Amino acid sequence: MGNSALKAHLETAQKTGVFQLTGKGLSEFPEDLQKLASNLRTIDLSSNKIELLTPVIGKFSVLKSLSLNNNKLTALPEELCKLKKLDTLHLNGNHLRRLPAGFGQLSALKTLSLSGNQLRTVPTQLCSLRHLDVVDLSKNQIQSVPDAVEELQAIELNLNQNQISQISVQISHCPRLKVLRLEENCLELSMLPQSILSDSQISLLAVEGNLFEIKKLRELEGYDKLFMLRQRGVLMQQKMGGKRKLSYRKGKQPFS
Fold first, then answer.
1. Is 179 helix (H, G, I), strand (E, B) or coil?
2. Which residue range or ranges hold the Disease resistance R13L4/SHOC-2-like LRR domain (predicted)?
3. Strands ordered across the beta sheet of 42-44
4. Quick check: 85 and 66 in contact, CB under 8 A?
5. How confident is the model over 113-123, as pLDDT tens digits?
């Protein structure tokens, strides 16, 4: 990209607080972007070839949304954790194996997307994020869900298309977890904690594509309770005129 084109984008961003430069083949975080560190609210550099997010990212004090989907990131700087107003972080389709130690300091974070990376476990730093609503960890290399998950505050957790064969029973203690997606993993039915069905807040459980038949799940104690929670969600949706946060489907079983 030429300097004149980048300059035009910077001028627009200065006026709008939004910098979007996707699919331009950038190999690094634009150095000139730090001139706008004090007023940018949104940065989208998706679908480039960025390998390194420089420590300068920590200077973007009012940044609320950062998207770096489909780049070549292998690590994130600790300075990222200084972004106290960041509420949306999209990092799908990179090569990340871990998160910074201080990731739990992103106190405003509500939405985190890390699909299509190389994570091998659920990052325990996420359990410190008190306002986290949605976490997407699908298409990684996660093999188990640890005990620490009980502190997770998320409403929706997507673990589809991993290599999960073990799940801690503590997941049933997650105080706000309503939607748990575990499709296309390596779970035996005996490894799925029954307390998810009988003693949790979860009302949507997606487990297709594992090492058991769905009809066997319907025979377990607690299935009826989960189905009633699902139907209650449908009725609530109808009373609200169709507005919803969770994607319930009228009359559809939780598992199919």
1. strand
2. 57-154
3. 18-20, 42-44, 65-67, 88-90, 111-113, 134-136, 156-158, 179-181, 204-206
4. no
5. 999 999 999 99
Rounded CA separation 109/105 (Å): 9
What's the token pair of residue 137?
């960890």
Global pTM reads 0.88
Query: What ranges do the domains of the chain cover?
Result: 1-102, 119-256
Residue whose structure tokens are 């620490």: 148
CATH 3.40.50.720 correct for 119-256 = no
Q: How many other β-carbons are positioned within 10 Å of the β-carbon of residue 176?
A: 12
CATH 3.10.20.30 describes domain 1-102: no
- Which H or E run contains 225? helix 223-239
| Alpha carbons 91 and 109: distance in angstroms, whole number | 13
Tens of pLDDT along 115-145?
999 999 999 999 999 999 999 999 999 999 9
In the chain, the amino acid numbered 73 is L
From residue 128, how far is each of 102, 124, 125, 150 by CA, in Å?
10, 8, 6, 11
Q: Do domains 1-102 and 119-256 have the same CATH topology?
A: yes
3-state helix, strand, coil in the chain (%, to 5): 30, 10, 60
Structure token pair of residue 144: 């188990």
